[in-house]
């Protein structure tokens, strides 16, 4: 059964082979498939980069999004598939919009520089990190992958003031060999989740007085917490409206 709404899939060029495996199903469902490349010789897959270069810089017609509302699907995020294969979680515009508020709650400023090395196919990196930065209008340093040995050198090089983490990143940083310039950086805020209390204390002792904004949430969860008080080991504090 074909979708009643126009639908398309965008893929990186290095995932072309994986896309080809499901291409018959996508074609049957009436889904247009694009790949980030200037050309593609596979029938049923369209190149996108060349079309972007040729596109007009004029504002799009409002009619293109006339049927889109805050409850409409904005994107899909594939969960880890604990009970089987990864499954697509539907993220609507409301959930995306709410996720971008976390940077504001954490007191991210317009002159901040965010260092982002988390994968963009997960909620933390894409919704909270990249989309949140767009909402705030701040500069983003986007790294292809996390490197514990080069992390602080990159922060110094790009004058980073805000970093985003998951718990293991902080532990990896604490496990690197100590250096005399460990506290020589401009990072003032760390935003993320999953930070153990012992690693939290070790991180602050080694890398300086950095405000840690620990939060809790899930891609398909219906509740979240934010530790805006900086209490070591806590995942958040109940809002007064919930009491």
TrEMBL record:
Domain (AMP-dependent synthetase/ligase) spans 19-226
**What keywords tag this UniProt record?**
Ligase, Lipid metabolism
One GO molecular-function annotation for this sequence? Answer: long-chain fatty acid-CoA ligase activity
Q: Which GO terms describe its cellular component?
A: endoplasmic reticulum membrane; plasma membrane
GO BP annotations of the record are: long-chain fatty acid import into cell
What domain of life does the UniProt record list for this protein's source? Eukaryota
Q: Which reaction does it catalyse?
A: tetracosanoate + ATP + CoA = tetracosanoyl-CoA + AMP + diphosphate; a very long-chain fatty acid + ATP + CoA = a very long-chain fatty acyl-CoA + AMP + diphosphate
Which InterPro entries does the UniProt record give? AMP-binding_CS, AMP-dep_synth/lig_dom, ANL_N_sf
Q: Which Pfam families match?
A: AMP-binding
Q: Which family does it belong to?
A: Belongs to the ATP-dependent AMP-binding enzyme family.
Its name, as the record gives it, is Long-chain-fatty-acid--CoA ligase
Species of the source: Notothenia coriiceps (black rockcod)
Give the organism's phylogenetic lineage.
Eukaryota, Metazoa, Chordata, Craniata, Vertebrata
């Amino acid at each position: 059964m074909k979708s009643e709404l126009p639908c398309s899939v965008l893929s990186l060029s290095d995932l072309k082979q994986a896309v080809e495996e499901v291409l018959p199903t996508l074609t049957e469902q009436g889904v247009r498939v694009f790949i980030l490349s200037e050309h593609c010789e596979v029938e049923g897959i369209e190149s996108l980069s060349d079309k972007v270069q040729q596109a007009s810089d004029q504002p799009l017609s409002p009619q293109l999004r006339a049927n889109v509302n805050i409850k409409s699907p904005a994107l899909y995020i594939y969960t880890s598939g604990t009970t089987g294969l990864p499954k697509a979680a539907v993220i609507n515009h409301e959930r995306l919009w709410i996720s971008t508020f976390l940077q504001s709650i954490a007191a991210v400023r317009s002159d901040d520089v965010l260092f982002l090395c988390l994968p963009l196919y997960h909620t933390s990196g894409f919704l909270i990190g990249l989309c949140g930065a767009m909402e705030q209008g701040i500069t983003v340093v986007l790294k292809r992958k996390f490197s514990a040995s080069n992390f602080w050198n990159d922060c110094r090089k790009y004058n980073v003031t805000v970093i985003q983490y998951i718990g293991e990143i902080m532990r990896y940083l604490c496990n690197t060999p100590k250096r005399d310039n460990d506290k020589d950086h401009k990072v003032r805020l760390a935003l993320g989740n999953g930070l153990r209390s012992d690693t939290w204390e070790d991180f602050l002792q080694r890398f300086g007085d950095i405000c840690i904004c620990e939060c809790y949430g899930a891609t398909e969860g219906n509740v979240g917490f934010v530790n805006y008080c900086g209490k070591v080991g806590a995942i958040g504090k109940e809002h007064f409206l919930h009491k």
